[in-house]
Amino acid sequence: GQQVMQIPQYQHVQEGEDFTTYCNSSTTLSNIQWYKQRPGGHPVFLIQLVKSGEVKKQKRLTFQFGEAKKNSSLHITATQTTDVGTYFCAGRPLDGQNFVFGPGTRLSVLP
Amino acid sequence: DSGVTQTPKHLITATGQRVTLRCSPRSGDLSVYWYQQSLDQGLQFLIQYYNGEERAKGNILERFSAQQFPDLHSELNLSSLELGDSALYFCASSVDDRDGYTFGSGTRLTVV
To answer: Does B73 touch chain A (CB under 8 A)?
Structure first.
């Protein structure tokens, strides 16, 4: 079955540094979503990417969908302590109905 | 408030017991999903319902079952509970399969 992997598993950064997490699928995706889960909270939908090579920005967050639609990345510029949490990608396979969640990248931001 | 309501928020029960978790989806959402999240782990997909019908099944144990009622609320039944079933159980809803999921706050189940 389809597998969605994320690297790194953990990332510790100093406040103000940039952060990137990568999401890779074993199969081609129709679209991909990103979620953020704060410690003790529930996942919150951030964005959905549909087109090959698509890039979307939300303030300091930049999301990219690979040309082959098998990978994606989330980049945070100048991290803040409010960025702390686990970032999950979720990929929807071409022949599937449900999104498959990656294991997540846990981000810690040191003040 | 995400619009997805899960009850109870916390549940402590003994091994061998049976519990029912409840979820009310966001207004207008027809799809309901159940996920299990163990300590510091990812989201394990259990099952999906769409407008009352089972749509997809994930890694759901035979001891677990779910249903979606005509008013679209859903229940997840966990029976013959084991210590390893202790986890956060999230319900999520969406308009259809292609939209972003709205998660509830979860039910934290502790089996002792």
So the answer is: no
